[in-house]
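A quick aside before the break. I want you to see a complete sequence-to-structure record at least once, exactly as it would be stored in a machine-readable document. Don't worry about memorizing anything.
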Amino acid sequence: MERQILVTYPESLAFSLKMGNREFENEMKTISVVKLYEMGKISSGKAAELLKVTRLAFLNLLSLYNVSFYHSTKEELKDDFANA
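That is the input. The structure line, written in tokens, reads:
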């Protein structure tokens, strides 16, 4: 089951960032997921799933937000080595 979060923001915010409303909404979702990953609340695999991208694409995306992917959990590192 999926749930939805409603965030109210002034239209001028997206405009001031030179983004359309849809682009701004996607950016907010991405930033939220990246932050959850950075805080260690979700795995990179879960983050990729939420953003509907591959895990590699998510890890590459982290550099746009100055977030390191080196804080992976032991389980993630084991999976990485097993899949290498």
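Two observations worth writing down. The mean pLDDT is 88. The CA atoms of residues 18 and 48 lie 26 Å apart. We'll return to this after the break.
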